[in-house]
Give the backbone structure.
Amino acid sequence: MQIKEQNQDAILFFRLGDFYEMFGDDARKASKELDLTLTTRDRNKPPEERTPMCGVPYHSCDSYIARLIAKGYKVAICEQTEDPATAKGLVDRDIIRIISPGTVISASMLEEGKNNFLSAVYADESGVGLCLCDISTGEVFATSFPAGPEARDHLENELGRFHPTEAVLSEGAWALAGLTDFLKDRLDCMCQHWEEEGFALDHAQEMVDKQFTAGLETLPAGDTAAVQATGGLLRYLYDTQKTDLGHIAAFSYYTTGQFMELDLTARQTLELTETMRGKEKKGSLLWVLDKTRTAMGHRLIRGWLERPLLSPVQIARRQQAVNDLVGDIITREELALELREVTDLERLIGRVVYGSAGGRDLAALGSGLGRLPRLRELLEGCPSALLQSLREELDDLPQLRDLLQRALVDEPPFSVREGKFIREGYSEEVDRLRNVIDHGAELLADLEGRTKEQTGIRNMKVGYNKVFGYYIEVAKSQTDLVPQDWVRKQTTVNAERYISQELEELEHTILSAQDKVVALEYQLFVELREEVCAHVAQIQAAAAAVAQVDVLTSFAVVAAANQYCMPLVDSSSTLSITEGRHPVVEKMLKNAVFVPNDTHMDDGDDLCAIITGPNMAGKSTYMRQVALILSL
């Protein structure tokens, strides 16, 4: 009850043995949402005084938690914090983590091809700061807007761009007219009214300086709103996650002028990432362009479509990379095949640093790194400056990769608490203990044979029972041959039973070998995890490079298949499109051919065009076509 009192806004999962139990109102809510049976412990009390309870198995709790998170709840995980075997009285327990829509880390609760952003908004009379973080990948973005009547519009446009699942709001942000309604109703985002002290400038600046090892040079001097938003987000994460967040190390500040700003209505109308009616990927621009092979690429291409570049130089840089791959079909196809085998390095390293990774995650990380040398080799001949810079980022960390390959079996079990994931030959002690477990009977037979030879007691035998454990049984007629250092354990009708120092050690080895090998394997796993954590920056950089190569390859595949051209993008006010096609409508047509059409507009005589025609003649299709071509 004390722990629940401190976590009123979350459903408390209280660990009792092999179950997470919920009590009182939490039990009533969970039983309804999860279709669980309500029960109680105090059946001796009148029904109105009983405490409702329900529970779920701890080893399969993820699916239940995911359902609660999807319904808009927060879940506080309470675990034992001391060994029950050594505890006196009640075993100490504490909250180890609070799970909310924006802090999900488990792969089973995340959509592979979509980022899951937590946002923090700080607002005061001088301006508005916004920070967004995907805790599963470690990505952090921040920006700010000067105070004024347009500040909220800019803020909502940016929130619509990233579509966070949870928002932490300062006092000033909470008071912004219509913001919470926009977040809840338009974005289906959980809103948290965070205390103002969580955004205090001095503490926020200290946390930002301590947390980030790269990217702080992009933060403009004096932008206190962005600092306070970022500090508030970090404070919220540390208060709820209660673990190392070392993978959140790279900071990225951007200005709204870097990207084309579209409001949420425009995004939905243009169907950039999903259709308006069915909320499906099929029928959207993303559906046409997304031929990415990796989870990282899936997320990045969505981000690029949500944030179209405005800089002609940056656009030309991407175009040249795509052009190189369009013109080299062999490299393009081989890249596509190789990328298919690259694992989700971003989220894998996130789980490793977070502490929730298992043996399978480390093995998958090693496997993904193993694909990078071939990617580097394939990109070697591409002249594009962007592709060459990405090639340099593809550090496969050969020593770490070799360590993981030597240490882990090809298919590790799900849990690292049960052993059997360390490869044979990696640890002499693990191999010895496994040999004891697998060949305990042979070791006992060998000891029996050697003891007979050494003592001359030919009819002795080594036996075992649950009461006395292992023993050496000697017929009473031969007890005079028993060595003096043997200790008598039991007397029977016809024999005496002894224990020798060697048998006692072997007994201890056999009986404790299973526990020892599991504990040792977990210790080795922790050491491997720490070694991986030491290379988090290189792995994240390699993952980001893989994602970009994947998206550029996808663009090249689509461009080649659909015979797209490479337009000239400059800073002029002239729009000239010849034989333009609507990329989505063209693909949705079954038994018809899309008729291309031209567009010419400028800031002179052709500033405006009036489109006429009957209903269903294609006026809106033409308008959206022009908008989509521009947003590409």
User: Anything to note?
Assistant: The longest helix spans residues 501-533.
